[in-house]
């Protein structure tokens, strides 16, 4: 039974695309058949994060408009044979997407994949609405700061009213994924605490991804962080999150950087 | 050649149909009962005009001539009798209205002569107004960007009201959670409306047009259960308990 999962946030720059790539790769690593769709028409990025930018021929718009077949637009990941990408168009804008066309594409993907991950654009306009429209589940990516949390609250409200599932009177399954979490700054009270975020959003937590250089490093080489350095703290956090998505209960911890022997000895500079 | 068309047989089609009729149940003395009918007619002449009437004679023991006399007295008053009920079959002659059986009671209102479409709609409206509850209960959190408007009465929210959300009520507002958004009570000129919340972090509170923004709300109240009400032109916010 295929599951359509939208990765969304409202606010930009919180890590939707990074998270889509990391979750998609982790699901594929666990043997699931996964397709990730870039809904950010005009500002596509998912192809870069997955390192597939040089192989894009056809895109989502072409498929929606019937110019290309789905088969022609899907790009298979070179490292994970279970992971596919349906890229966005960089030259068109979001008005080229139609609900009817998206519905058709998603229905076709449902027959071929276990997971359909929709990488939503920022904002609450057409692109974001269509990305969530057919979702069965949603991952709401939130940073530990007030503006991101408020935007997430807004998006949750829309997931509960603007999706096909909501209109049928059913509930979209919702998960909060907190990214760019810095335990040290949180301890100093410079960030919203996890408890505060969850109290405001009243939605279950899927995982906490620590702020880490590894995320940027992985993006720069066009690799999902779960694939690039599976042992890094963010990769382990994403893998835990995926286990929870698949129904395993994994204790909620904030993975820390594993420090080498020397850095453990000489890790802290005396003041 | 004789072009004789075979005689087509006309089918007799019969259908059942039911009608609503007034049932008159005369009582002894019949003369007195007729006076009552006359009084009714005096008050609203034409009340029975064009309305089918059935005579239920079970309370009387009348002979054939008695029944004929009663029917004709009614006809003199412009009341046409459609059928008889509660009479022994042997007393019914062919000149009398037919004997009916199997009648069922129904609401007389359906056949009220004054009833028009307007009155029926007005009645429906009145029924709707009566059925409409004077409060609105919301069992989920109200999210940022959502606006709940209920001008007819109170709003109760079982959950939090997010920052950037809005609750607008004709009556009072009750929030069993944190109120982070805006709450506007008594918007249709109800100065006695109040706002109650489990935890106050509101962006704006308003009652009957008088408002306070987050800046005006005393910091000591923050994160506490509180209520707001109007004392004249001044909004008062005080902790509960």
List the helices and strands and how they pair.
The complex is a heterodimer of chains A (271) and B (241).
Chain A: E1 3-8, H1 16-29, E2 34-38, H2 46-49, H3 60-64, H4 70-73, E3 75-76, E4 83-86, H5 99-110, E5 115-119, H6 126-133, E6 137-142, H7 146-159, H8 164-167, E7 173-181, H9 183-187, H10 194-201, E8 205-210, H11 213-220, H12 225-228, H13 233-245, H14 261-265
Parallel strand pairs in A: 1-5, 1-6, 2-4, 2-5, 6-7, 7-8
Antiparallel strand pairs in A: 3-4
Chain B: E1 22-24, H1 30-43, E2 53-56, H2 64-76, E3 81-85, H3 117-131, E4 135-138, E5 147-150, E6 154-157, E7 166-169, E8 173-179, E9 182-185, E10 195-200, E11 204-207, E12 210-213, E13 226-231, E14 234-239
Parallel strand pairs in B: 1-2, 2-3, 4-6, 5-7, 6-8, 7-9, 8-10, 9-11
Antiparallel strand pairs in B: 10-13, 11-12, 13-14
Give short descriptive properties of this protein.
heterodimer; A: 271 residues; alpha/beta; eight-stranded mixed beta sheet; 14 helices; 40% helix; globular; B: 241 residues; six-stranded mixed beta sheet; five-stranded mixed beta sheet; 3 helices; 14 strands; elongated
Account of the 3D structure:
The complex is a heterodimer of chains A (271) and B (241). Chain A is of the alpha/beta class and 271 residues long. Chain A has 14 helices and 8 strands. Chain A has an 8-stranded mixed sheet with strand order 3-4-2-5-1-6-7-8, sandwiched between helices. In chain A, a hairpin with a 6-residue loop joins strand 3 and strand 4 (83-86). In chain A, helix 1 crosses helix 13 (233-245). The N and C termini of chain A lie far apart (57 Å). The mean pLDDT of chain A is 92. Chain B is of the alpha/beta class and 241 residues long. Chain B has helices at residues 30-43, 64-76, 117-131; strands at 22-24, 53-56, 81-85, 135-138, 147-150, 154-157, 166-169, 173-179, 182-185, 195-200, 204-207, 210-213, 226-231, 234-239. In chain B, strand 2 (53-56), helix 2 (64-76) and strand 3 form a beta-alpha-beta unit. The longest helix of chain B has 15 residues, at 117-131. Chain B is elongated and about 95 Å long. Chain B starts with 21 loop residues before the first strand and ends with a strand. The chains are: A alpha/beta (271), B alpha/beta (241).
């Amino acid at each position: 039974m295929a599951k359509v999962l939208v990765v969304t946030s409202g606010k930009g720059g919180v890590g939707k695309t990074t998270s889509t790539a990391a979750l998609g790769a982790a699901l594929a690593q666990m043997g699931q058949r996964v397709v990730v769709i870039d809904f950010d028409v005009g500002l596509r990025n998912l192809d870069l994060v997955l390192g597939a930018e040089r192989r894009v021929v056809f895109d989502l718009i072409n498929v929606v408009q019937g110019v290309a077949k789905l088969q022609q637009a899907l790009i298979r990941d070179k490292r994970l044979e279970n992971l596919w990408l349906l890229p966005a168009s960089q030259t068109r804008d979001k008005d080229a997407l139609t609900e009817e066309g998206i519905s058709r594409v998603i229905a076709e993907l449902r027959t071929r994949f276990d997971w359909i991950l929709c990488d939503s654009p920022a904002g609450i306009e057409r692109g974001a609405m269509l990305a969530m429209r057919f979702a069965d589940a949603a991952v709401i990516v939130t940073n530990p700061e007030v503006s991101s949390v408020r935007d997430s609250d807004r998006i949750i409200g829309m997931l509960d009213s603007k999706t096909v599932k909501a209109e049928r009177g059913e509930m979209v399954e919702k998960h909060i994924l907190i990214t760019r979490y810095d335990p040290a700054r949180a301890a100093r009270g410079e960030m919203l605490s996890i408890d505060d975020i969850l109290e405001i959003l009243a939605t279950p937590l899927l995982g906490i991804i620590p702020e880490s250089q590894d995320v940027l490093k992985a993006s720069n080489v066009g690799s999902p962080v779960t694939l690039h350095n599976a042992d890094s703290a963010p990769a382990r956090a994403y893998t835990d999150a995926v286990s929870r998505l698949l129904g395993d209960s994994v204790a909620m911890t904030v993975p820390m950087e594993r420090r080498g022997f020397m850095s453990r000895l000489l890790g802290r500079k005396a003041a | 050649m004789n072009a004789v068309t075979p005689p087509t047989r006309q089918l007799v089609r019969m259908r059942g149909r039911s009608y609503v009729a007034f049932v008159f149940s005369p009582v002894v003395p019949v003369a007195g009962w007729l006076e009552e009918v006359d009084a009714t007619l005096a008050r609203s002449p034409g009340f029975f005009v064009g309305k089918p009437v059935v005579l239920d004679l079970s309370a009387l023991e009348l002979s054939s001539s008695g029944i004929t006399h009663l029917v004709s007295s009614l006809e003199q008053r412009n009341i046409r009798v459609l059928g008889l009920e509660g009479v022994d079959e042997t007393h019914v002659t062919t000149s009398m209205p037919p004997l009916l059986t199997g009648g069922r009671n129904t609401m007389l209102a359906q056949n009220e002569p004054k009833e028009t479409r307007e009155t029926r709609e007005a009645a429906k409206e009145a029924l709707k107004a009566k059925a409409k509850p004077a409060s609105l209960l919301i069992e989920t959190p109200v999210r940022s960007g959502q606006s709940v408007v209920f001008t007819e009465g109170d709003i109760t929210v079982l959950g939090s009201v997010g920052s950037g959300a809005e609750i607008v009520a004709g009556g009072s507002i009750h929030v069993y959670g944190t109120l982070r958004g805006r709450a506007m009570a008594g918007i249709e000129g109800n100065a006695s409306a109040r706002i109650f919340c489990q935890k106050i972090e509101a962006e704006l509170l308003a009652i009957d047009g008088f408002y306070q923004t987050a800046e005006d709300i005393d910091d000591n109240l923050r994160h506490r259960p509180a209520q707001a009400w109007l004392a004249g032109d001044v909004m008062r916010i005080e902790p509960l308990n």
